[in-house]
Amino acid sequence: MESPGARWSQRVVEVAILGFAFFSPWSIAGAQLCLGLGLISWAIKLIISRGRGLARTPLDLPILAFLGIELLSAMVSPHWQTGLRSLKHEWIVLIFFLVANNVRRRELVWRALDVLIAVTALVSLYAIWQHFAGWDLYRHRPLRPTGNVFEATGLFGHHLTYGGYVMVVLLVSGCLFLWGTRGRRKVALGLASLVLSLALICSYARSAWVGLLGGILAIGLLRGRKVLVLLLAGTVVLAGFVFLLQPSVRLQVQDAVNLLQDPVAKSSRIQMWLASLRMIRDHPLLGVGLGQVRQSLVAYGCDLGYAHPHNDLLNVMANAGFLGLAAFMWMWVAFLRMTVRCRSGRRGGKLSPALGTAGFGLLIAFLVAGLFQCYYTDAENGMILWYLMGLTMAACRLEEKKGDR
Q1: For 255-286, how does the pLDDT look when each residue is reduced to its tens digit (9 = 90+)?
Q2: pTM of this prediction?
Q3: Is 55 contained in some domain?
């Protein structure tokens, strides 16, 4: 039985987890404040309870290996101080452990998801307004035009950050709508999914569009051929509808097609990718050193002012070599295996299989979108990824406990 101090700390942690769900779609400062409160309270609880309740997860070893290789890469690099300072950005992995260890009730899982999806949908209504108005009220600045409309950013600073965020929340909302619930909540999730879909289109984050398609394909493959066909048919119909009615979408597609004529000359991304490949060729084992890609891009003839190569896999390899990439992929494979097992277990009702499906799809979507943009190192996107992975882990663990009784 837990002591009063441990119970009090647990309540504070739960409030912090819900607070993150509330602030995350619109305030990184508020989200990080909640995380700080949650981590401090969890540490107090562990001290009071002498470490009892600290559960193992399938990601423990992969995460430890990834962080260890990044540390080694920093230490052997020419500018090791820069590498060590860059390592502090990996604190966000603690979000996964905070949520996975402290969400112990299905009611809390649902409450966190309800808050997250509702607030993200409200912000998305504002983003849809931005798409036509062309103004960011929060930052008092005009938005970048695309045709006769504008790239929506929501309450974030960049349209790609916003698009990546909406992409993963949309996949969770959509999976819960299709398989996770019924009644009024199902109707609310359906409406939220529609709003999030429109907001994702309005962001003009093409990497997130491609990522969403990858996530839908993954979900279809996981759920079976019939679901795959229905999801693809729905996606094609929606995409065709938007393509015909919105000239700005056709403009984005045409820009992508034009790149194929001379991709190296026209695409800054491809220039960065080529420079990164040369970088990796010269430093294959541990990369150029954590946090040292920006100056290395310049040294390899790509002085475009970017701190990363707009590709998560290349960025990991450039920072920490093939060893870093192996550990990076180990984390995701371990999580995907866990979601597959969760999806196949139906003892816990609708929530766990639906959230397992969503976790599988959103991670694939995140990795696919990350082929064209560094979403993992984008704070807002990295935090929501680990948060949703933690909720998925917690929901699947609750199912296992119920099955054991």
Answers
A1: 766 665 556 555 788 889 999 999 999 999 99
A2: 0.94
A3: no
